[in-house]
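Margin note from the TA: students keep mixing up input and output lines. Inputs are the sequences; the output is the structure of the whole complex. Example:
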Amino acid sequence: MTKTEPAAGSVRRLAGTLHRRPRLQLSLLLSAPLTWLVLAYLGSLAALFMSAFWTTDTFTSNVVKVWSGDNFKTLVTAEVYREVALRSVGVALAVTVICAVIAFPIAFFTARIAAPRWRPLLVVAILTPLWASYLVKAYAWRIILAEGGLLEWMLSPLGLDGPGYGLTATILVLTYLWLPYMILPIHTGLEQIPENLLDASSDLGARTGRTFRSVVLPVLLPSIAAGSVFTFSLSLGDYISVQIVGGKTQLIGNLIYSNITLDLPLAAALGTVPVVIIVFYLLAVRRTGALSSL
Amino acid sequence: MEGKAIRLRSLRKVFGKTEAVAGIDLSIADGEFFSMLGPSGSGKTTVLRMIAGFEAPTSGTVELAGKDVTRLAPFERDVHTVFQDYALFPHMTVEQNVAYGMKVRKTPKAERLRRAEEALASVRLESFGKRRPSQLSGGQRQRVALARALVNRPRVLLLDEPLGALDLKLREQMQIELKELQREVGITFVFVTHDQDEALTMSDRIAVFQDGRLEQTGTPAEIYERPATPFVAGFVGTSNLLAGETAEQVVGKPGTFSVRPEKIRVLKDAADDPEPEHSTATGTVAEVVYLGDATRFLVDLDAGGRLTAVQQNLETSSEDVAAYRGSRVRLQWHHRHNFPISQPS
């Protein structure tokens, strides 16, 4: 080419203008998603916080827009709310730990032992349960856990009873539902550990268990933390599984749900509890460096 | 008598359908700097990994210090490896990396720290203990990997192309340092490389690998001056082979002969009589490559074939050199530089 072709046509002119004005380019790129984020996402969150400070007329059950901190006072003082909040955090932690324990060997197989050409297929297989509706899976578990259901039938030869509906069943179902979210980051993390790192540890005298504790786990910690963000927050916010298989179990989620029609401001105040817990959880997780690898 | 640090007997390794190592017999003496040289895919790294215990041989045995270790795990062998990509633990500091082997063996903490410090000093990284590997340059990481392996005082140190990722200047410097370090500590070094200069510079002995087999084992001088096979002649230094009729005319005997390029003198006057005891050949200069300190001539022989000759640029400059292109020359070298090569049948 001997000389530069002059820009022709309006599209080229526009492209040229944008190239010379990076700020204009950036604002065109981001204005629509930012509008969505600020109005729909942060807006509804702000509405939640505001309505948490309103009150309900006990007689008519109508929302009265009078500012008061009574809802939060109730949350802190009433025994039942503290109990439910602690139970919810306990469930979320239990689900997270069980998911991590189950996910590691599966991810180890899919990322390091299975033949490389099978690995993408295995990852797809792990993801397939996510294609089915949440409700269908939860009700499937309701049938499995039912009295005289599949689980009981399988356990009876061993002289064991099924857990029935309740807290155990809730943890079981939540673990089942969120497991793929834990397997995937661990799989990716394991895939990225260079083989030589494991060889080097063994070469320096470490047995398999030692290599696992001193090399694999610390290197994998950010991946596990990333997976736990999903399992923890999804479990903490869940209100459907507990209704389907939880029996009489109360968690924050279904407490909020049942209060929406009765006392909307109190439900809103309850809704801030998981938000606050998850913010603290994220702050803790950030220390592991997991958020920078998400 | 010197002890044998390593002894390999009929060592074979098959991956699926490919035979990576096709029967190797080799012994390496205590305190030797031994290089395994070969192109990529020649099986040298696989042999190294079998010595370390990362791969189990398909058949054959590995002996370390007279003891059969073929079935032992890497952590049961008195051998340490320096990996090509260093394989430093990213979540540990330099000091923790170096102390890892001692920590695993439950060495008391005070001794651990003292020895880690010493090891880091021996590779001139004393002030780097608290850093992370990611904060170091390639050459520094390489030295940490060395310190981490040497601090445990293994009987044998295996080095898998440890200088491959470094730039030329640093590589040459590290070659000298490695050799000095090896002399100091007296540990047997087994060094895998595809770089012939590296192997020639550092080794006491070299084994040349091709297609999973040993082509030749010997001192650098033996390998370079008297290559045993055409492959060795070509891989170590420039291939300069005289074969068939050309060999009969030039050398005066049938067979295949190797001549090193720097032994050949390029004489401008093609008509001169040859000196006694010298082989000679006339030809046309096909190409001249100016290398700065030397010049490489590619000469098409009248008798057939092509020879490469290298001359030091004692008084010539690049302009003089260019004038040679296309001119008639006579090549001459002493008989003793003709090395017969056994031709695979």
